[in-house]
């Protein structure tokens, strides 16, 4: 089994720890197996929680990219600093197609925030990709891919697992 804790050059910040705690408090093993996935539900829950954790406001499905792609969540702090969030959640039915589904989706979001041009109002927004893994195989494959030599974002991508074999939260930050 792959190590679920990355050797950090830094520890997860309070915000990431809030997400880990949020994920640990939810019945994700039951939710994970629901047909159609649970990412939309997680977006709603996290968009409601982000203002409590970060201050300011949060909106879902915001048109921040020039190609019409939407950000999963956009937060605006009281000082008007913005953060664009993309979220990937491990899904039972996607895992049936390939155990790499979580990693592949996370990488697509990494590429989205790193390469998709943003509209002028969002040029200075920080970009954060969050991935939530629930079961061993998908999480282990993601860690194998993220620690492999071909992975393009090794210095931005981190992960931490909730206590007692809880969910694993992957995250990458771009300023």
Verbal overview:
The chain has a 6-stranded mixed β-sheet, with helices on both faces. Helix 5 crosses helix 6. The protein has helices at 14-24, 28-32, 39-54, 92-97, 101-115, 136-146; strands at 57-62, 71-76, 82-89, 126-133, 157-161, 168-174. By secondary structure, the chain is an alpha+beta fold.
- In terms of structural class, how would the helical and strand content be classed? alpha+beta
The stretches of 5 or more residues where confidence is low (pLDDT under 50) are 1-10
- Total helices: the number is 6
Radius of gyration, in Å, reads 15 Å
Net shape: globular
The biggest beta sheet, please?
6 strands, mixed
Approximate strand percentage? 15-25%
Spell out the helices and strands N to C.
HHHEEEHHEHEE
Distance between the termini: 33 Å
Classify the helix fraction into a percent range: 25-40%
Number of strands: 6
Widest beta sheet: strand line-up: 1-2-3-4-6-5
The overall average pLDDT, rounded, is 89
Q: What keyword list fits this structure?
A:
disordered N terminus; six-stranded mixed beta sheet; single chain; 175 residues; globular; alpha+beta
How would you summarize this macromolecular structure in one to three sentences?
By secondary structure, this protein is α+β, with helices and mostly antiparallel strands. 37% of the residues lie in helices and 23% in strands.
């Amino acid at each position: 089994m792959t190590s679920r804790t990355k050797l950090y050059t830094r520890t997860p910040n309070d915000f990431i720890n809030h997400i880990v705690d949020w994920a640990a408090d939810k019945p994700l093993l039951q939710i994970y197996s629901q047909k159609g996935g649970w990412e939309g539900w997680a977006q709603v829950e996290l968009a409601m929680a982000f203002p409590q954790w970060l201050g300011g406001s949060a909106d879902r499905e915001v048109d921040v990219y020039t190609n019409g792609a939407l950000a999963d969540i956009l937060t605006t702090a009281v000082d008007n600093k913005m953060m664009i969030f993309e979220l990937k959640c491990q899904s039972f039915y996607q895992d049936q197609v390939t155990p790499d589904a979580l990693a592949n989706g996370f990488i697509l979001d990494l590429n989205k925030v790193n390469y998709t041009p943003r509209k002028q109002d969002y040029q200075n927004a920080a970009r954060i990709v969050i991935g939530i893994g629930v079961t061993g195989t998908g999480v282990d494959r993601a860690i194998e891919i993220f620690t492999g030599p071909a992975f393009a974002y090794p210095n931005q991508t981190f992960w931490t697992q909730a206590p007692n074999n809880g969910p694993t939260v992957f995250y990458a930050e771009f300023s």
